[in-house]
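Ticket 4471: requesting a sanity check on a complex prediction with zinc ion. Repro inputs:
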Amino acid sequence: MTPASADVLSGLAKRAERAELLAPQAAAAEAPLRFAAGLYRAQRELARALASGPLSADLDEQAGPLLASAEPLLRHAVSGPPQLAEEARTRLQDDAQTARTRLLVYWSGDPEARGDYLSRALLKPWVELLAAERRRPVRDRREGTCPFCGGLPWVSARRIMPESHGAQRLLHCALCAGQWDFPRIRCASCGEADPDLLPSFQDEKHPAARIEACDTCKRYVKSIDLSLDARPIPEVDDLVSLALDLWAADQGYQRIEPGLAGI
Ligand SMILES: [Zn+2]
Ligand SMILES: [Zn+2]
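Returned structure tokens:
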């Protein structure tokens, strides 16, 4: 295993530990955090299996080896929320061609496959391994996606930059775990830049979390403030404020890319 691959494995293990650490204090989000911890562990094992063979940047070549090691992750998903469990049971029965097609359709960016939680979960270890070796995956890039791998932003992070003025806003990719700089006053989905159309919402129970919404496209991204506390891992800590996502859905906003809870 290369040092870069070993970093990916330890990064996934750290996220599993963070989820386990937060779970007991998270009330309604305890079950999603425990599920996420198990998912990260399954992704670490999938990454380990992929790193033991030749790694291709082309999903056409990688889909076979990836699916050959997919079963433990799908079995974990059977322990998840009912709808996801049902999907996982179906996928465990898939013939090879169907399983492959599902991954390739998701990867093509087909809007119909946008909420395909299991394809995202299966592809993530592969894309993280490529990112660690700075090998760009073969994929058509679309507007508003990660400049490295074409993944969608599932969470954003804010921090105060000591050298520059004010805060920095980073979008975090749901696939490669990379981040990219993004203007604070702009919708990450449609590009709206009128501050009057970009409301943000918080509640006092979750002071570090914020809904950054857009009234033009009715989408939002969950933002985690890292200037209060540098320990959070945004994609994991996001789950603690799951209640905010439920509230946003009630208000008619849709998350640009679901977090680990699938919402
Ligand atoms: Zn990415
Ligand atoms: Zn928008």
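Notes from triage: The radius of gyration is 18 Å. Leaving this open until the requester confirms.
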